[in-house]
Write a structure and sequence with these properties.
The structure is a single chain. This protein is of the alpha/beta class. The chain has a single domain, classed as 3-Layer(aba) Sandwich (Rossmann fold). The chain is built from six helices and seven strands; from the N terminus they run ββαβααβαβαββα. Strands 1-4-3-2-5-6-7 form a seven-stranded mixed sheet, with helices on both faces. Helix 5 links the parallel strand 5 and strand 6.
Length: about 200
């Protein structure tokens, strides 16, 4: 089963541009919003400093804005897929109020060890696997070599490297040690630093 939020809340439809486009891929927890552990309700959300500035600038430069997020909280039974979708709709509306728009949100609700029932499985979408990134590339005719990924965990970086994303940025805060299985990435200390890496 493929999992994605297909339409933004502002009523516009997601339509791939002709030819190859590029994307700014964002992990959710720890990049779009502060990491609190199994986020499920709007009142828990604290957006990361600079995320709206980053997204407005990226969109102005022609980047697609795509969130790719592991959601093991669904697998563990802490909240439901509908809870996730409701929160995503709320977050998308917040982006719209800030003058920017998420093109799509992909998520993986599975966990190979701690999933309950059908959610307990190995899944090609669960980072560090690159499944969500590759599906986005197909859905939006993306040039992954010209795209950027920002994550806060080595699993994000590994997924981006496996998918062939050109620029991999690790936001400091979670991973104290180097990402041992990644050959190329840059550490950044803020989303402002990521903004400076966007290419016109």
């Amino acid at each position: 089963m493929q999992h994605q939020v297909r339409e933004p809340l502002d009523g516009t439809l997601t339509v791939a541009r002709a030819g190859k486009a590029r994307a700014l891929f964002l992990d959710r927890d720890g990049v779009v919003n502060e990491e609190i552990g199994y986020l499920s309700r709007p009142e828990q959300v604290r957006f990361m400093p600079g995320v709206f500035d980053l997204c407005r600038r990226a969109q102005a430069l022609g980047y697609r804005l795509i969130v790719v997020t592991n959601q093991a909280g669904i697998a563990r039974g802490f909240y439901t897929e509908e809870d996730f979708h409701a929160l995503t709709r709320w977050m998308t509306a917040e982006f719209a109020r800030e003058g920017t728009r998420l093109d799509r949100v992909y998520f993986c609700p599975h966990h190979p060890e701690h999933g309950i029932g059908a959610y307990r499985k190995e899944c090609p979408d669960r980072k560090p696997n690159p499944g969500m990134l590759r599906r986005a590339a197909k859905d939006f005719s993306l040039d992954l070599a010209q795209s950027i990924l920002i994550g806060d965990r080595c699993s994000d970086i590994a997924a981006g490297e496996a998918a062939g994303i050109g620029t991999l940025l690790l936001l400091e805060g979670v991973e104290a040690e180097p990402c041992m299985h990644a050959e190329r990435y840059h550490r950044i200390v803020s989303l402002q630093e990521a903004l400076e890496r966007l290419v016109p």
